[in-house]
Design a protein that fits this description.
Length: 277
């Protein structure tokens, strides 16, 4: 008799990597649908919903960075008011305080943790410019180093000048701890992600082995499953970590679908320095 016609679903499954569960990479579960999440026990906590740039997702890190931005603004406003009340001709000091204020308000726009404000057109425009001209600010390592720099500015503005040593010390300490923790987090994620890339490259597999024909890319659940299958460690990355990694792999500042595109995987799996997270 005639052979049974093959469906689109069958073709997608045939394109999936042979040593991975083909259902993990099926288009049916793309985008983090509940079916795929339940199948692999990932739940619905994986990233991918809403617009976010870099590490500015509605998670605990956003609030920590937002407080750091407020701290920088407080230092800038305090010193600005002090010099208005005790005015002397000091152009260098005025420029110093001006840039401290600019940095503070810029960080507030960059670190807004409230989804409703994140999607404001002016905020989106500003974040897009940051992603284009200061990409390091969308990474843990870059943001951590920047806040360490802000800690030195706040200390110099409030402690060295004697304006308010106690308040200046408290604000500086927060920025210092925040910067060190962010740098540490970025280094850990960067090294772990580079380890995964080395394993994938040494296995001889390419990005096409993990993205079925007709799929735009891998969802956060699919990416996490791929990492677990290739490293034999299902807990290498948490759900939040996967979201940060997808943001680092992304070519665009915003991706509402939360997918790692095929071309992004191809670029990541090329020889070169580690991807900074």
């Amino acid at each position: 008799g005639r052979p049974t016609p093959r469906t689109t679903c069958d073709l997608r499954c045939d394109c999936a990597p042979r040593d991975l569960d083909p259902m993990a990479l099926r288009g049916d579960y793309q985008g983090g649908s509940q079916g795929g999440a339940d199948r692999f026990g990932f739940g619905a906590a994986g990233g991918g919903e809403g617009l976010n740039a870099g590490i500015d997702k509605y998670m605990k890190w956003s609030w920590a960075f937002f407080v750091g931005a407020i701290v920088t603004c407080v230092a800038g406003i305090t010193t600005f008011i002090y010099y208005l009340q005790n005015f002397t001709f000091a152009p260098a000091t005025c420029f110093f305080e001006f840039f401290l204020l600019v940095f503070g308000f810029s960080l507030i726009l960059l670190d807004l943790p409230m989804p409703g404000l994140q999607t404001h057109p002016h905020v989106l425009g500003f974040r897009t410019k940051v992603y284009k001209f200061a990409l390091f600010m969308t990474r843990f390592l870059g943001r951590g180093i920047w806040y360490l720099f802000m800690a030195t500015l706040v200390f110099g503005a409030m402690c060295d000048t004697g304006i308010n040593f106690i308040l200046g010390s408290v604000l500086t300490l927060y920025l210092l701890v925040l910067g060190l923790v962010a740098v540490g987090k970025g280094m850990v994620l960067t090294m772990k992600l580079n380890k995964v890339r080395d394993i994938l490259m040494s296995s001889g597999k390419t990005a096409e082995n993990f993205v079925a024909r007709g799929q735009a890319g891998l969802s956060s659940e699919q990416f996490k499953h791929m990492v677990g299958q290739m490293t034999n460690d299902q807990n290498m990355f948490g759900d939040d970590d996967v979201s940060y990694i997808i943001n680092a792999l992304s070519f665009a500042p915003y991706h509402a679908d939360g997918l790692v595109k095929l071309e992004e995987l191809q670029y990541w799996l090329q020889p070169g320095p580690p991807l900074m997270v």
